[in-house]
From TrEMBL:
Keywords: DNA-binding. InterPro entries: Homeodomain-like_sf (IPR009057), HTH-type_TetR-like_transc_reg (IPR050109), HTH_TetR (IPR001647), Tet_transcr_reg_TetR-rel_C_sf (IPR036271), TetR_C_16 (IPR041678). Residues 15-75 form the HTH tetR-type domain. The keyword DNA-binding applies. This is TetR/AcrR family transcriptional regulator. Residues 38-57 bind DNA. Pfam families: TetR_C_16 (PF17920), TetR_N (PF00440). The keyword DNA-binding applies. It comes from Paenarthrobacter nitroguajacolicus (Arthrobacter nitroguajacolicus).
Length: 203
């Protein structure tokens, strides 16, 4: 049985076009956000025909996902969370975050977090990921005016990102050494308050 041939030498024009499209998409998504970016704009920025974008990517969602290069898929990490009653959702969210960050993807996640903090473009991309792929699931079904639900989601993100940075990136003890159960017990009530609790004290 013959072994598959390994491609060598210079990259093809197709490879170059795909990379140019991804580079353009990262730039525009970071600057304009997901809603403010069109496939035609990406094609113009990459100096390719719009048909070339459709050749490599089925649509804007696939292009966005390919542009971000996340170490983990938010849909898998948060699977089922949006189906839970919002009033009891926080513990599942915290446990999902801890399980992910203490699993095989930890090194990649830490590198991704550090790279995001130091890059304006990556921070812009991460903002879009948090809004579209993470908070949309975390806040699904939460009642209230749109502006208030958005604020609640921002507060959940602030608590979760703070936990990740302190425990896994900065490794601030004793939080970094605490057990998962202790972290859930201490952090989940605050996140639950942000999701469904009384926010009047913040006014």
């Amino acid at each position: 049985m013959s072994l598959p041939q390994i491609r060598r030498g210079r990259r093809s024009a197709g490879d170059h076009s795909r990379e140019a499209i991804l580079a353009a998409a990262r730039k525009l998504f970071a600057e304009k956000g997901f809603e403010g970016t069109s496939l035609r704009q990406v094609a113009r920025e990459a100096a390719v025909d719009p048909a070339m974008v459709h050749h490599f990517f089925k649509g804007k969602d696939e292009l966005f996902a390919s542009s971000v290069e996340l170490p983990a898929d938010p849909a898998e990490v948060l699977a089922g969370v949006e189906m839970m009653d919002p009033s009891v959702r926080a513990e599942a969210i915290v446990r999902a975050v801890l399980t992910l960050w203490e699993g095989p993807a930890q090194h990649g996640l830490v590198a991704f977090a550090r790279g995001t903090i130091g890059s304006k473009a990556k921070s812009g991309m991460m903002r879009e990921v948090v809004s579209r792929a993470i908070l949309s699931r975390v806040m699904a079904g939460v009642s209230g005016p749109d502006e208030q639900v958005l604020l609640r989601g921002n507060l959940v993100a602030s608590q979760t990102v703070g936990l990740i940075l302190a425990r896994y990136v900065i490794r601030l003890d004793p939080l970094a050494s605490a057990s998962q159960d202790d972290v859930v017990r201490l952090v989940a009530p605050t996140i639950q308050r942000y999701i469904t609790g009384d926010l009047d004290s913040l006014k």
